[in-house]
Amino acid sequence: MDRLRKVPEKRSQGQTMVEFALILPVLLLVVLGLIEFGRAFFYYTMVSNAAREGTRYGIVQPKDLAGIEDAAKRRLVLIPTDTVTIAVSYQFCEGGCAPDGSNIEEGRTQVVVDVSTDFSMMTPLFQPIFPPTTIRFVSARTIVIGTRARKTGGVPTFTPGTPTPSQTPGGPIPTTPTPTPTDTPGAPPPVTDTPTPSPTPSLSPTSAPPTPTQTPGGPTATATATSSPTSPLPTSTPTAVPPTSTPTAVPPTFTPTAVPPTSTPTAVPPSATPTLSPTPGSLQIVFAAGYPCRGQEQNVNKGRVRVIVYVTDGSGNPVTDATVEVTAPETATLEHIGGGAYGFGGACWASSGQVYGDTTTVTVSASKAGWVGDTVSDTPGGNPICDGSCP
Predict the structure, then answer these.
(1) Is the sign of the CA dihedral 364, 365, 366, 371 positive or negative?
(2) 332: domain CATH number?
(3) CA 40, CA 48: separation in Å to the nearest integer?
(4) pLDDT tens digits for 316-375?
(5) pTM
(6) Is residue 388 situated within a structural domain?
(7) Residues 117, 123: Cα–Cα separation, whole Å
């Protein structure tokens, strides 16, 4: 019984060894394949980053070839730099680009950085299947800063305006009650009967005139002695004098009565806090180097005027959707030719049939909805002759 039990255990161990021996080569191939393809992807990432870094440096320093190569090499990690080839060139120049970048045009010419390196598999088993190859990446970008543009009076400096915050009301305005005196008429003024004394008759002739007595409030009987030469006795005739009531108008007296002020609070709805609207952007125009210029199509003193300008937002960023017009004095609308540059047909704009001299004033204006525009002027006299084409 013991022998029968031990036989299956030995067979199980042998089966495991055989299965492991069969699966081990496949497992090793998968692991080594992941390592090799991971190396290839790492090489490609390093080469592409180096090319991009070189073009970033080249758009601001396009003629510094050594600096462009150093900027690209700084991005190479765990890759021997002596196995990496870096080539710098230019494209889109008038009449072809010089190797040293002497005839580059800002806003049109592109700097091209070509980075390549050799790559081969480390595993001898994969080398016959995947022969050595070259990993290469090319990056190109338009030059935007590299040639200082010329403008009459120097390059303008943009100073952003400071927004003035408006006063924010903190709440309803308090109401200060003001007492208002009110003219309150009192009782109607009484009418006072003031007796007016009537003229007192005089005794004529008499030696001792009697003194008349006036009693207000009723009829007064005044005895008047009249001396008549023909009558031995004086005749006393009582005369009833009715009282005279003269109403005197007494002006009404207005007694100011202090009325306590009534303060009725009025609910004032809170006003919305004003929001400072952003200061609109400002456009800036600069003439490209060598512009405006004139040719010699007619004679040595006159020719067609040619113009290229750059439009930025004041911080150096190109504006590609502005409306740009030139007056030389022929008027035309410039079109965007790349990188914030405005000309015509990918090159400079030239006047059509009219010719001008060195003292002709060339005026360029730029506008954009919601932005502050700009206008610049210059003459061709300070620039070289165009010689019948764009410089």
Answers:
(1) positive
(2) 2.60.40
(3) 12
(4) 899 998 999 988 778 889 899 988 899 887 788 787 767 777 788 989 899 998 889 999
(5) 0.37
(6) no
(7) 19
